[in-house]
Amino acid sequence: MRAGLACLALVPALAACEGRQSVLDPAGRDAAVMAELFWWMLGGAVILWLLVNGLMVYVSRLNRDALSVRAATLLVVGGGIVFPTVLLAVLLSYGLSEMPRQLAPGTGLSVRVTGELWWWRMEYLPEGAETPVISANELRLPAGSRSELRLGANEVIHSFWVPALGGKTDMIPGRETRMSLEPLEPGEYRGQCAEFCGDSHALMAFGAVVMEPEAFREWLEHEATDAAPPATEAARAGRAVFLAEGCGSCHTVRGTPADGTIGPDLTHLAGRTTLAAGVLPMTADALKRWIADPRAIKPGARMPGFDHLGDARLDLLAAYLEGLE
Ligand code: CUA
Fold it and tell me: Which residue intervals define the domain Cytochrome oxidase subunit II copper A binding in the entry (predicted)?
């Protein structure tokens, strides 16, 4: 009993479960349903626990003659079997009744998300569009509508999860899985791969940005454009380094000869909230650190290190990439 009360005392600790990557701090319809379900389940479990243990203590302390066998049986069967069964059945049917909405197809925007080692390929297909807008490592969605996510993977199984927006869904090579999300509140959240997928599984994250519909439409229009030409001398020199070092054989920067598709599309890299799939901030210093030695930051990463370029040329590269907004 004392241990149980100690557990109950820990419930307020759940109040710490808030923030950009918390299921208990929902910003989407599906996450809100799940958070509500969690609190109902927790409440039900606490009531059951107290009831069953309370009954056990009560019955074990009874004087043999104080209660008829019939009354004791009724007490134990009612409290130990019937009540828990009814309570669990109510909670189960409540949970199941919410499932159809979570499995409903999206309307309007569709995003194809592909799990790579260890980053995310994002392809946005607005309603009626023929060709997707290609991006990476950041999911942007309009608030107030249900968007469709078509999930896939190369090489190994990953799992797509933005806890603040909804449930998680596995991404399986050679197969397309689907889910839909209905974000409600504009803001910046965080997604995380939720299936162990190798060395850098824990470092496979992404920014999830929910925008007002009009701002989202403008962002997507901009994302579809080619990269702007470098605006400074350093950025121009940086682009020359980028092309001379063969970065374009793995990365695409639309509007330049760089058209590789092995690594993330960098056309509007600097417009993203994070670098290297949610691991680093989008700053010049982080860009330099990443390019110099990606595997020191993300073990097993496919990208080779470019430490040999030296500080001056890394500065130029960072200046070029920082300008890709
Ligand atoms: Cu991808 Cu874990």
Answer: 106-222
Of all atoms in ligand 1, which is nearest to the CA of residue 197? 2
- Contact predicate 269/324, CB 8 Å: yes
Q: Are 152 and 111 in contact (CB under 8 A)?
A: no
Look at residue 16 in the predicted model and tell me its pLDDT.
47
Q: What is the pTM of this model?
A: 0.83
Residue type present at position 225: T
Residue 53 CA, chain-centre distance (Å), reads: 39
Query: Residues with Cβ < 8 Å from 31, sequence gap 6 or more?
Result: 23, 163, 164, 165, 166, 167
Residue type, 49: W
The DSSP bridge pattern shows strands 110-115 and 147-153 to be parallel
CA distance 198 to 156: 9
pLDDT confidence of residue 71: 73
Helices (DSSP H) in 250-292: which residue ranges? 284-292
- Residue-level pLDDT at 8: 55
Atom of ligand 1 nearest to the CA of 157: 1
Distance 192 CA to ligand 1 centre (A): 8
Reduced to 3 states, what is the DSSP secondary structure of residue 258?
coil
Residue 115 Cβ inside 6 Å of ligand 1? The answer reads yes
The gap from C-alpha 119 to its chain's centroid, in whole angstroms, comes to: 12
**pLDDT value of position 82:** 86
Distance separating alpha carbons of residues 177 and 192, to the nearest angstrom? 17
5 phi/psi in degrees, rounded to 5: -65, -35
Q: What is the pLDDT of residue 130?
A: 85
Residue 197: CB within 6 Å of ligand 1? yes
Distance in Å, CA 57 to ligand 1 centroid: 47
* Encoded amino acid at 85, one letter: T
Q: Is the CB of 303 under 6 A from ligand 1?
A: no
In this structure, what is the dihedral angle of CA atoms 85, 89, 91, 95, given to the nearest 10 degrees?
A: 150
* CA-wise closest residue to 180 among 123, 107, 98: 107
Which one-letter DSSP state was computed for residue 32? H
Amino acid at position 70, single letter: R
| CA angle at 110 for the pair 105 and 116, rounded to the nearest 5° | 110
Give pLDDT < 50 ranges for the chain: 15-16
